[in-house]
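User: Let's play a game. I give you a shape written as tokens, and you guess the letters that built it. Ready? Here's round one.
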């Protein structure tokens, strides 16, 4: 059902195959937009399953990342939002690029959903500490401290590339800076709540990308000690 929604109108008959996917940059951008729509609906539905809040960032602090993130998404998804200068195409169309971008958009969104399920009822759209909050180390949190943002940024970069305009890359930069700022505040909250446990967790994980070197070094040191 979701696949049919994403790709309806883009599957065409072909003499070589009964169902061949033909994608240009415009069609790929529309499919990516639909994938984001499905993601938003799922995200809103999952928001009802979260714990009560123990501590939360202030409204002013929230605006510090909400405003740039909102501007970033507008620059990517609203045509002409940045004016003529930002509406210039800077990424030339390539035959295989649109399909790759759609694939990475969907994979990135699915990765963020996986991370959301791993986080469970500890999740919140704002920087908070929940009542009975737990430090999650399962799923993608074994390697990455903010895998939801990793998935979102992967999907958004792919969407911006298939859009191909300067506004798309500027928008991605706005969202990246917003999520980085939010992640830093979340880590401050977690460090205050969990102390040494979070410090140890941070040593073995990356913020948005996995960190394997430290864990490998410790394993090697342990092997030598034996």
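Assistant: Ready! My guess for every position:
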């Amino acid at each position: 059902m979701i696949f049919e929604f994403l790709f309806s109108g883009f599957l065409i008959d072909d003499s070589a195959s009964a169902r061949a996917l033909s994608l240009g940059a415009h069609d790929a951008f529309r499919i990516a937009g639909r994938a984001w729509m499905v993601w938003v609906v799922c995200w809103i539905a999952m928001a009802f399953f979260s714990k009560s809040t123990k501590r939360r960032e202030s409204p002013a602090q929230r605006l510090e990342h909400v405003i740039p993130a909102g501007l970033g998404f507008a620059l990517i998804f609203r045509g002409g939002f940045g004016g003529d200068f930002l509406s210039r195409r800077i990424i030339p169309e390539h035959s295989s690029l649109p399909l790759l971008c759609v694939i990475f958009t969907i994979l990135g969104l699915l990765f963020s959903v996986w991370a959301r399920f791993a986080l469970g009822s500890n999740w919140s759209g704002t920087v908070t500490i929940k009542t009975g909050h737990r430090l999650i180390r399962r799923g993608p949190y074994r390697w990455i401290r903010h895998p939801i943002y990793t998935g979102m940024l992967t999907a958004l970069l792919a969407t911006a590339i298939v859009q191909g305009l300067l506004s798309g890359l500027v928008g991605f930069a706005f969202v990246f800076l917003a999520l980085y700022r939010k992640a830093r505040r979340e880590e401050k909250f977690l460090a205050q709540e969990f102390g040494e446990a979070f410090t140890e967790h941070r040593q073995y994980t990356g913020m948005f990308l996995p960190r394997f070197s430290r864990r490998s070094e410790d394993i090697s040191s342990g092997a030598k000690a034996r």
